[in-house]
Amino acid sequence: MRIGAHVDPTDPLAEAAARDAEAVQFFLADPQGWKAPKPREDAERLRSADVDLYVHAPYVINVATLNNRIRIPSRKLLLGHATAAAAVGAKGLIVHGGHVNAGDDLAVGFDNWRKTFAYAGDSGGFPLPVLIENTAGGDNACARHLDALARLWDALGDHEVGFCLDTCHAYAGGEELLGLVDRVKAITGRIDLIHANNSKGAFNSGQDRHDNLTGGTIDPELLVAVIRAAGAPVIVETPGGVDGQAADIAFLRGQLGAAA
Ligand SMILES: [Zn+2]
């Protein structure tokens, strides 16, 4: 099981080495901005690295919304990030499930997701796996609760789509962690990546506040059980910089190795 961390994008391989990580996730552009990613000068070095790379799409992307002025640029930006992520040899592009506004029909949001994949299909399809991530908050989210996730997967039909399970988001979003992997896989058939995070917020608080694995409101043993059951690569998106994340990675290696 490859274990790594979300890191600063300046030199992801140096960040991986500093944490003894086998995988890294990073942004290719400002996560709060709409700028298309620029080609990276270190693309060749990244492609040939021994470290598995994952790219996180900007948070501003919301392909589900009924608001044209957000949805249309979101589709375009997502495809741009997919192209740029493939250029550095990333194994997947992670994007949040998104939401519709209060009063809007969530069914249209799911169909907007389908149209996003159809839009990408018009230019040959996404050049790498797109992993939709579950989110913690909101009442109109496409991928907070598993009943919504099931409707999203129905809408996506035959499109090739992956899933990234964030443990903090699931817990804070109100999904019990016990048995979660089986319930998710019954819907998606797959978990491509785990975002392993403890939660500062309480169960079902809707708060997206990550904590280190042995801190927070989730029993670390339960966290480890979910990660072990998923059997997917792991990225910690935890605080504390190099030291905090290196400790989380070492903790996971110890826990997962001990039971192997
Ligand atoms: Zn996450």
UniProtKB/TrEMBL annotation:
<dbReference type="GO" id="GO:0008833">
    <property type="term" value="F:deoxyribonuclease IV (phage-T4-induced) activity"/>
</dbReference>
<dbReference type="Pfam" id="PF01261">
    <property type="entry name" value="AP_endonuc_2"/>
</dbReference>
<keyword id="KW-0862">Zinc</keyword>
<keyword id="KW-0378">Hydrolase</keyword>
<keyword id="KW-0234">DNA repair</keyword>
<dbReference type="InterPro" id="IPR036237">
    <property type="entry name" value="Xyl_isomerase-like_sf"/>
</dbReference>
<comment type="similarity">
    <text>Belongs to the AP endonuclease 2 family.</text>
</comment>
<feature type="domain" description="Xylose isomerase-like TIM barrel">
    <location>
        <begin position="14"/>
        <end position="253"/>
    </location>
</feature>
<dbReference type="InterPro" id="IPR001719">
    <property type="entry name" value="AP_endonuc_2"/>
</dbReference>
<keyword id="KW-0227">DNA damage</keyword>
<protein>
    <submittedName>
        <fullName>Deoxyribonuclease IV</fullName>
        <ecNumber>3.1.21.2</ecNumber>
    </submittedName>
</protein>
<keyword id="KW-0479">Metal-binding</keyword>
<dbReference type="InterPro" id="IPR013022">
    <property type="entry name" value="Xyl_isomerase-like_TIM-brl"/>
</dbReference>
<dbReference type="InterPro" id="IPR018246">
    <property type="entry name" value="AP_endonuc_F2_Zn_BS"/>
</dbReference>
